[in-house]
Amino acid sequence: MDAELLLAHVLGVSRAGLLTLGEVPDDAVARFEDLTGQRADRVPLQHLTGRAPFRHLELAVGPGVFVPRPETEQLVEWALARLAGRAEPVVVDLGSGSGAIALSIAHEHPGARVTAVERDPGAIGWTRHNAATRAAAGDTPVDVLSGDMTHPGLLRELDGTVDLVVSNPPYVPVGATVPREVADHDPPLALWGGPDGLDVVRGLLRTAARLLRPGGGLGIEHADQQGSALPALVRASGSWTDVEDHPDLAGRPRYTTAHRSGG
Ligand code: GLN
């Protein structure tokens, strides 16, 4: 399938368009062989095409930015359900990378006022690029902020006013084995979360508790093995009610949600 997608990419046609293909020019064949060679060497397909589909969007990606994964689409589904009926909800995406979560929410809930936070200097150019592309296409503009989600001063001006905080933070425990194409091509800052994978999440929880209004929603993606540890951490940190864990489409524990207590 990846070979078909690469050939379609080289020829500028859809995958279905390959069915009615005439003769392929030599330079396209050479380019196709180069790309399939790189793919066989575990370069991610999305880096070779420069595009990553995510929900209704096609995002620009490449070296330096985490390639958005289909599992995260469900976290967005949950977020949109939470926002339904709110005309102008305030939303913050912590660790936005390509902007997949933030830009999808802005695309699918045009009233939302979304801020995307990214600290990785190698990634934020992609966040900004994708945000500019979506705004030019007519979506409600998303604010992109260079900052660390664990910093106590982050977005101070929004303290207690945010309706929803959503994040796919780095959560891979140091020492865990990840596929070579992940280890070699996704940015380390997007992956590694300290000894138990939850180091960044601890800071994220403090930031989210500060930013959210009472009753505001929190949704955090996590590793398959963190389906008990992350809800336990959220419960133990106080500030939260309705802590729930949700599986992905493969049935693996994938994201935890909660509401800010009080109010
Ligand atoms: N799910 C990612 C992977 O495939 C890890 C992403 C993360 O740490 N947020 O490795």
Explain how this protein is built.
Pfam families: MTS (PF05175), PrmC_N (PF17827). Methylates the class 1 translation termination release factors RF1/PrfA and RF2/PrfB on the glutamine residue of the universally conserved GGQ motif. It comes from Geodermatophilus poikilotrophus. There is one protein chain. This protein has about 260 residues and is an alpha/beta fold. The chain folds into two domains: about 1-40, no CATH class; about 65-260, Vaccinia Virus protein VP39 (Rossmann fold, 3-Layer(aba) Sandwich). It contains ten helices and nine strands. Helix 5 (about 100-110) links the parallel strand 3 and strand 4 (about 115-120). The chain is globular. About 40% of the residues are buried. The mean pLDDT is about 95. Bound molecules: glutamine (GLN).
Give a topology summary:
Blueprint lengths: L1 H10 L14 H15 L4 H5 L1 E4 L2 E4 L10 H13 L6 E5 L5 H9 L4 E6 L2 H16 L6 E4 L15 E6 L12 H6 L2 H4 L7 H13 E10 L7 H8 L3 E8 L5 E8 L3
Parallel strand pairs: 3-4, 3-6, 4-5, 6-7
Antiparallel strand pairs: 1-2, 7-9, 8-9
Glutamine binds next to loops.
Key terms for this structure?
263 residues, alpha/beta, Rossmann fold, 7-stranded mixed β-sheet, two-stranded antiparallel sheet, 10 helices, binds glutamine
CATH class of the largest domain: Alpha Beta
Please report which band the strand proportion falls in: under 5%, 5-15%, 15-25%, 25-35%, 35-45% or over 45%.
15-25%
Overall pLDDT: 97
- Low-confidence stretches are none
Query: Quick one: CATH superfamily of the largest domain?
Result: Vaccinia Virus protein VP39
CATH architecture of the largest domain: 3-Layer(aba) Sandwich
The radius of gyration computed from the alpha-carbon positions, rounded to a whole number of angstroms, is 19 Å
| Backbone shape | globular
* Total E-strand runs: 9
Terminus-to-terminus distance: 51 Å
Count of discrete domains: 2
SS-derived structural category: alpha/beta
CATH topology of the largest domain: Rossmann fold
Strand arrangement within the widest β-sheet reads 5-4-3-6-7-9-8
Helicity range of the residues? 25-40%
The helix count comes to: 10
Please describe the biggest sheet, giving its number of strands, its sense, and whether it closes into a barrel.
7 strands, mixed
User: What small molecules are bound in this structure?
Assistant: glutamine
Order of helices and strands: HHHEEHEHEHEEHHHEHEE
Protein name: Release factor glutamine methyltransferase
InterPro entries: DNA_methylase_N6_adenine_CS, HemK-like, N5-glutamine_MTase, PrmC_N, RF_methyltr_PrmC, SAM-dependent_MTases_sf, Small_mtfrase_dom
Keywords: Methyltransferase, S-adenosyl-L-methionine, Transferase
Binding site for S-adenosyl-L-methionine: 95-99, 118, 168
